[in-house]
Amino acid sequence: DILKRMLDYDFNDIKIVGNDNGEPFSDNYFKNEWLFKVKNFKEVEIVSNMNMIDEDYITRLHDNFIEKNIPIGFLSSIVSTNKSTYEKIMVGGNFNKAIENSLYLDSLGILKTINYLITKDNLDEFCSCDIKEEFKKLGFHNCRLYVMEDLTRKEKKLDIEKAYDAYICNNKGVSFTSLS
To answer: Cα 96 vs. chain centroid, distance in angstroms?
Structure first.
């Protein structure tokens, strides 16, 4: 209901981060109708895990926003650079689909960044490899790192300064954000 009311307003920009389960494309009205009715927005950014869309959908959405002259950007949430770790964390998720969709968004010039959320489930991966190189191997050059608040307080402490120095993820600069 709130989505329908938003269509009548002018917004400079809007960032869509999801519904109750965190994935905006799980809402069929949002995915199949609302995004195609948007007309008064100056810019739209969507944060997604890229599992509930495909290249055909991305192309239709991209073309729709181009036609309306509204910039659209995506922030792709990828919780691991390793297929088995990713699919353990994202139960029911498809690592290859998330990577392929994200690379396709990048080829269209509408992937703003990869969001890599560091949690207790991928902390070992983060600390044991060069995340910069792992994302480059997958074809990406831009990511932001987020640290879950509880990681700085529990048994596995994460030294934010050390992590920042060790894991700069791109040549353009990295946004390293602690959610604490």
So the answer is: 15
What is the pTM assigned to this prediction?
0.77
Name the region of 124 (left: φ>0; alpha: ψ -120 to 50; beta: rest): alpha
Residue 100's contacts (CB-CB under 8 Å, 6 or more residues apart) are 55
Terminal-to-terminal C-alpha distance of the chain: 32
pLDDT in tens, 25-76: 888 888 888 888 888 788 888 989 999 999 999 999 999 999 999 999 998 9
Residue 8 has phi, psi (to 5 degrees) of: -85, -5
CA-closest candidate to residue 43, choices 74, 12, 78, 17: 12
3-state class (DSSP) for residue 3? helix
Torsion angle of C-alpha atoms 120, 125, 126, 128, degrees rounded to 10: 130
Alpha carbon of 86 to those of 6, 34, 90, 138, 165: distances in Å? Answer: 34, 30, 6, 14, 24
Mention every residue, 6+ apart, whose C-beta is less than 8 A from residue 14: 6, 41, 43, 44, 45
Contact predicate 61/35, CB 8 Å: yes
The residue with greater pLDDT, 38 or 130, is 38
